[in-house]
Design a protein that fits this description.
This protein is α+β, with helices and mostly antiparallel strands. The chain has 13 helices and 15 strands. The C terminus is likely disordered. GO terms for molecular function: protein-glycine ligase activity, elongating.
Length: 486
Amino acid sequence: MCGEANPQEKQPEELIREVPMASGPYFYISGSNGAGLVSIYCQSRGWQRIYDNRRQDYALKWCEIKCRETYYHFKEGEQLLYQIPNNSVLTSKTGLLSCLREQERVMKKISRTLKKEGTKLLKMEEFFPESFRLDLKEERNAFFELCKEEEMWICKPSCSNQGRGIFLLKNPEAVTTLQAKLYSSEGDLPRKRVPCGASHTRIVQRYIDQPLLLEGKKFDVRSYLLIACTAPYVLFFAQGYVRLTCGNYDATSDDLTVHLTNQYVQKKNSLYSQLKDETVWQMEHFNSYINEKFGKTNGLPQDWVFTVFTKRMQQIMLQCFLAAKHKLDRKLGYFDLIGCDFLIDENFKVWLLEMNANPALHTNCKVLRDIIPSIIYESLDLVLEIFTKCLKGQNVLPLKTLCRFVLLYNEDAADLGQKQPRKLSTRSCTGRYLRPHTDSTGHFRYSPAKAAGLSPGAQLLQKKECLAAYKRQSASCPNHTARATV
């Protein structure tokens, strides 16, 4: 399955069959990505963690690795499950490319209708680098025919993550070498699609070799797309952070740490231990830097980052979702958090690099410790509130738990003039695994009584995390009062 964080094969506690003393609700977590924060959130609501992945009476299941059996036994309208089963239509390189191309073909056919309705969709060339699939013979040949000049391309596995398997094609000789390897190792690949995990399922993209630089370093921006509900679809945008390389950018360099910004790659740089905190910026820091260094000289409006750039990211995210919407599996209880990576070139054009399933939710530096907890907590707040409203047949809006996230799409409200899909009948959807101890307000809060089953150290950590998160939220969000009590 596609993803970004590095999942563990099996946790030791998963080998232990544990029956909690309390009556639930129960939650199950597999892997380490975001596990601590998700656990704190659930325990603060009085939920009990279970460690047997065969149990089917969970209220929430959060897994890094998708398992067919989990989806087979999933109880729609009664449980919450992290990751849409076929999110690869958005988060694999070939999946996203195929969806966007299909959308582009449809747009050309109905362009007059879209103009009459005032619907504005971007062309692929406006936000997505030119790309070719190497698993399709026709596209392979087209790419090899095109690459006759000194141009830079980047080759990526379709379903890999953390920079694994990525390499640059910096000249025709490198392209010729790739062509020879493809034909010698795989033979003449058929035109049909190849399974996501196949080694030769790759794309090549035109490399943006003139990126905007921050203090001489290449960077990209990680933002988040929360699919809080799939029946109906409800989507949100969340600001993330800026990722920078350790070393200064040099287009001619063969060092991947100069070209790829993710932390997994940057750790391979000898300077990483010294510069770790400098490789991640808050969006506020980024905005101030752009205002000061580029605002006047490039004729940018004040706070370009939080106005023009943010609006563009939201527009691109929504368009990508709409391109894949009809392909995604949807059941009440499915939700997903997708990491979206954007690059800005020296002309301030915004490019989507990729969309990642299971984005890294680690807190290994100061900026991430400030950002990631609130991303997880508000995501789960929104998922729970919307799920509960759907069960009760209530309108999704207004949302009590909406704080820093921005509503991108509410299927109940509008769908670009398209016919609304059949609504899910909730007669048999009881949400029974969520009912005990559920906070009716939907807000995440710390409760000493509910934490009584934790060790003293875990209780202290939980309290600190909860209070810190709520202080940050209450300071910036008028709708989100700090309800944590000690």
